[in-house]
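Exercise 7. Predict the joint structure of the components listed below.
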Amino acid sequence: MCEANAYILHDDGTEELFLGAVDLIEPNENGGLKLVSIFGEQKIIDGSIERMSLVNHKVLLKTRNREQ
Amino acid sequence: MCEANAYILHDDGTEELFLGAVDLIEPNENGGLKLVSIFGEQKIIDGSIERMSLVNHKVLLKTRNREQ
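Solution:
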């Protein structure tokens, strides 16, 4: 299977698992992203794709800065 | 291998292959995307991800409308 793990990339360079075994990724209506795992688990993030490597099964996400 | 094929999704619903065997996807500095295949072929698109299914090895891209 070719699902990937999606991590939030923090400003200090650390990566935090957001959702494992991600199959589907699509933008949602609020400018964020909807991710759905192969198990049907669905998570929304107010952020965007920072980069991804499909061969490495890895998606890095960046959250929008909510502090204005 | 878990690379995917990236297609441009046209307004009429047809899909046009943009780059095969994509490994890396990341935003570029112009608000578009850079895609790199497992063979090192690199393509830039002035557009965004419409949706993707990693299990189906498929990335759908939408080009920005250049006609204003």
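Discussion. The longest strand of chain A covers residues 15-27.
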